[in-house]
Structures are given as C-alpha cells and as structure tokens.
C-alpha cells in the first residue's frame, strides 16, 4: 500500500479504538481489557463481587418486571458501553443480568484468531423456543468459525411466534444458512 499511497509504516498494530491487539507467529488476540476496566470504574463495579456465569440458568426475562426506571441516562450509558464491548466479547451479546460482575471476573477475555492451514468454515446454532415471557417468541443464535477462530455470531429474537420446537429450529437453521452462504461467497472472493 505504501507504493500506491503516501503513508508511514508505524509497525504492528497494538491498540486501536479501544481494541487491544497482540500479534504473534501463531495468531492474533483481540481484547478490550482497558475499556472493560474503564467501564467497571465508571459504574463503580471494580471491587464488587464477581460472577462466574453471565446469568442464571433458565432465567426468563420480561419487558416490564415492575421496577421503576430511576436514571435512564445512566442505564443508556451502560448499555452503549456494553454494546461496544460486545465487539470482542460475543459471550455477552445476549445476557444482561449480572453482566458487570461477570466482566469483572473475565476482564482479560477476548477473541483468539489462530493461524490455520485448513480454512474450514464451521457453525454452531441453537434456539430458545418460546423463551420470551412477554410475547412467547424464541431466540435464535449462531456462531461461525474458521478453524478455531470465531468470525461471525448472532443472538436475535425471532420475528414470529413458533408453534413447535421444530419450527423454531427451522427458523434458526434458515437464518444460519443465509449467513453461511454469504460467508462462503465472501471467502470465495478472498480465494
């Protein structure tokens, strides 16, 4: 690129837009450790009890749990910070409860992209049939890997109410297949 454009070589990337990048001969590790620590400090969660899991198993979330929204600006700021942190932490994309205590325990987690010679695209899918208490809609989730490196993931509420687990699985498989076709075409463009 230096032959085509006027630029300076600053060496290997170490830090960019709160993304910490550690490059080695066997792969690249991307995390947001400093950003996560700053988020915990901002919301006074540094010295609180940590959590080993994102949320209670089989916990059902509902739209209105009866609690009053005391400080909307505070919560919007927290949600915005968590959305940005989810760029390197796909494990927090769905869970809301206990999230800051979980982040405090797993502050150094990130995404490891290892060097691979076999560019095999694999995927994992799952769904939660009728998991929403409010409207009985399910949640679809998928993750795509090349080798052992996660390259694409999603956790999204389904748009329709399904009548069976099979129908919920079909919707999840369909959205996952659409993503797989797009990724295969993209990889083919990259040779």
Give the tags.
191 residues, alpha+beta, four-stranded antiparallel sheet, three-stranded antiparallel sheet, 4 helices, 23% strand
What does this structure look like?
It comes from Erythroxylum novogranatense. This is Reverse transcriptase Ty1/copia-type domain-containing protein. It holds the Pfam family RVT_2. InterPro entries: RVT_2. With 191 residues, this protein is α+β, with helices and mostly antiparallel strands. It contains 4 helices and 7 strands, in the order E-E-E-H-H-H-E-E-E-E-H. It has helices at 33-42, 72-85, 99-105, 165-189, and strands at residues 15-16, 19-24, 27-31, 110-114, 121-128, 139-146, 149-157. The longest helix is centred in the last third of the chain and has 25 residues, at 165-189. The model has no long low-confidence stretch (mean pLDDT 83).
């Amino acid at each position: 690129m230096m032959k085509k454009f006027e630029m300076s070589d600053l060496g290997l990337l170490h830090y960019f837009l709160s993304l910490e990048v550690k490059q080695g001969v066997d792969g690249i590790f991307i995390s947001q450790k400093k950003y996560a620590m700053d988020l915990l400090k901002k919301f006074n969660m540094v010295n609180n009890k940590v959590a080993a899991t994102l949320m209670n198993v089989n916990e059902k979330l509902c739209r209105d749990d009866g609690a009053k929204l005391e400080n909307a600006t505070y919560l919007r700021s927290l949600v915005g910070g968590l959305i940005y942190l989810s760029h390197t932490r796909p494990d927090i994309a769905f869970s809301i409860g206990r999230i800051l205590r979980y982040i405090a325990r797993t502050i150094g987690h990130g995404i490891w992209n290892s060097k691979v010679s076999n560019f095999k695209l694999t995927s994992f899918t799952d769904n939660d049939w009728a998991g929403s208490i409010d409207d009985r809609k399910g949640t679809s989730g998928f993750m795509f890997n090349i080798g052992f490196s996660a390259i694409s993931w999603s956790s999204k509420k389904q748009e329709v109410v399904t009548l069976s687990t099979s129908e919920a699985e079909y919707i999840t498989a369909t959205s996952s297949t659409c993503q797989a076709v797009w990724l295969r075409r993209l990889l083919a463009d990259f040779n």
